[in-house]
Hints:
The complex is a heterodimer. By secondary structure, chain A is mainly α.
Amino acid sequence: MEVTLLIEATxxxxxxxEDARERAEGLLGTAVKxxxxxxxxxxxxxxSLLKGAQEVKSGFQNFVxxxxxxxxxxxxxxxxxxxxxxxxxxxxxxxxxxxxxxxLFANVxxxxxxxxxxxxxxxxxxxLYQIVLANFHVAYLALSPKMPVxxxxxxxxxxxESDISWVTLxxxxxxxxxxxxxxxxxxxxxxxxxxxxxxxxxxxxxxxDRIAHIYMEADHIYVQDAxxxxxxxxxLRKHV
Amino acid sequence: MIRSSDDxxxxxxxxxxxxxxxxxxxxxxxxxxHSPGGGFQGGVILGASLVLLLITHGIDETKxxxxxxxxxxxxxxxxxxxxxIGLICLILLGNYLDYxxxxxxxxxxxxxxxxxxxLGIETGxxxxxxxxxxxxxxxxxxxxxxxxxxEE
Lengths: 240, 152
């Protein structure tokens, strides 16, 4: 009799213990959920704050950059540096920059503009050299009695990503004698080539590589991503 | 109805060129009194930049820059500036558009007042020519039917 009582008592105590454990687990779970929710909310808040600030900042930076570019253009046009004409220039540049900075800096990827300008200036001599070479080739084609032309339309997918780099490539191709860009459709170039040699030259992709280098695209995207992540990390550490 | 052009080269080059075209137009207007150019020429260049934007980027993008109401206001404001300056000269006991009388208001020598007066006149002319150029093109290209008319 006493043994059965004892067993029942132990069973009861076990049951109570299990209940308590379940209750504690439930409490712990809700607590964890709450903290994670609040943390998520805080993170979202910080993120939206950061994003908004960044947008405003980059918009203002673009406005100032557009104003400076337009002011230099005005000074080049006007050539008068008395206070009256400079004031007119400042007013006009502010108006035009405010109206059109969105147009001038649409689709600009994150990147250092100074580096892009430097690389672009270094690209121009190379392009001129290529144009001279192609000139000699086209002159040879035109002057040789057999006229060994082999006109063809080639199409290739480009690895470039932004519209400005597409346009740079398309205009470089058109500027080089013997090749003409006919159309760009969704990153696919349609190019008319005068002979097999110019088509092969284009197919080596050196021009495309150089333009990707200017605008830090294709191979350079990973480096830029790492830099972006580092900047966001630093900003988050400052806030938290 | 004008949609945005699907040619990437034309769209991108136009997008980069438009701010410079507009600034050049303002330069032509502002330097009209001592170099070739003036209100009409500058206004036409300004209107042409808007037409270029309309052709390449479509009507929605152009409306974000300047609405039809804004264009109407610009056209009327240009006329108001022109006739207003002329009328002020008349009130100051001169002939209509006799800018040298403006020296009483501006406190400068009459020659300078003449220069500033013609600058104001050319600004007004530029505004009006730009607005009229653009609205004529808009009316022709849309056949007089604007998107908000279709919605209603």
